[in-house]
Amino acid sequence: MTLIDVIDTWADIRPEAAAYTVLAAGGHASASITYRALLQRARGLAAGIETRVAPGERLLIMMPNGIEFMVGYLAALMAGTVAVPVPVPRPQRTNERVKLIIRDCAPAAAIVERADLAAAYGEALGADAASLRWLSVEEGEAEAVSADAPAGARSVAPGTVAMLQYTSGSTASPKGVRLTHGNLLHNQVLIDAVFGLDDRDVILGCCRCSTTWVSSGSRCIRSTKGSTASCSAPRASSPVH
Q1: Quick check: 79 and 50 in contact, CB under 8 A?
Q2: Who wins on pLDDT, 236 or 196?
Q3: What is the four-CA torsion angle of 240, 28, 138, 106, rounded to 10 degrees?
Q4: Domain boundaries defined on the chain
Q5: Alpha-carbon span 169 to 97, nearest angstrom
Q6: How many CB atoms lie within 10 A of CB 17?
Q7: CATH code that applies to domain 3-232
Q8: 108-117, 133-142, 179-188, 201-210 — which is least confidently predicted?
Q9: C-alpha Rg value of the chain to the nearest Å
Q10: What pLDDT is stored for residue 28 in this prediction?
């Protein structure tokens, strides 16, 4: 069993229940997605990813907190790629952590929210992004629909590498840890047990999706028990407009 199986189960049991909610300044909900919609969107995007990125290749998840990040992350797992969450590049910054991660894991592609962001992010990263193939959530979903592609949901074994989680790089170069689909699920099962989570709970995450909290219970599936997860939206000072 994997996280893909978990979201599929809850989309069947509680299709209209909120899987994720994004909170804006002041704490009010600015966006939300149900379990059924999350599964459908992730499957559609996974089908688009499968046409461009081979299973086992590294795929940078280059998006701020939000529904698109959750859809992109789950789609990367469904497509059999290795998800690598990274901070969004900022213009006129060195973006050294992202560059070091690219050099270390040699990703095949990066997925962003919208197609128009690819050029801006590529420029911010310079030569390190020269070989990246760029995908966007909106284009990937649209291509899957227009091509009438079968919904992506590649069968993955628990021992397959699901993602690379990198350290902050604040004291040394970022170091990546390989996490399998089984690791992610086991970690979540332990968190659910320790905190006694069930489908009545709401879990709040206030960190960036690209940090270690993605693999520590605050990621795309915050609970194996069907809980609703909430995360803070990006700050108004968006890095690239």
Answers
A1: yes
A2: 196
A3: 60
A4: 3-232
A5: 6
A6: 15
A7: 3.40.50.12780
A8: 201-210
A9: 17
A10: 81
Question: Residues 204-232: pLDDT tens digits?
Answer: 766 666 665 554 444 445 555 556 665 66
Give the sheet arrangement for strand 202-205, strand by strand.
Answer: 29-34, 18-23, 228-232, 202-205
Integer Cα distance of 99 and 220 in angstroms? 25
Q: What is the pLDDT of residue 232?
A: 61
**Residue 114 contacts residue 138 (beta carbons within 8 Å):** yes
**Beta strand 58-61 with 109-112: parallel, antiparallel or unpaired?**
parallel
Percentage of the chain lying above the pLDDT 70 cut: 79
Amino acid found at 185? L
pTM metric for this prediction: 0.86
Non-local CB neighbours of 12 within 8 Å, separated by 6+ positions: none
Nearest to 1 by CA among 172, 169, 224: 224
Between 137-146 and 35-50, two packed helices, what is the crossing angle to 10 degrees?
80
Strand partners, 232: 23
Read off the amino acid at residue 77: L
For residue 111, pLDDT beyond 80: yes
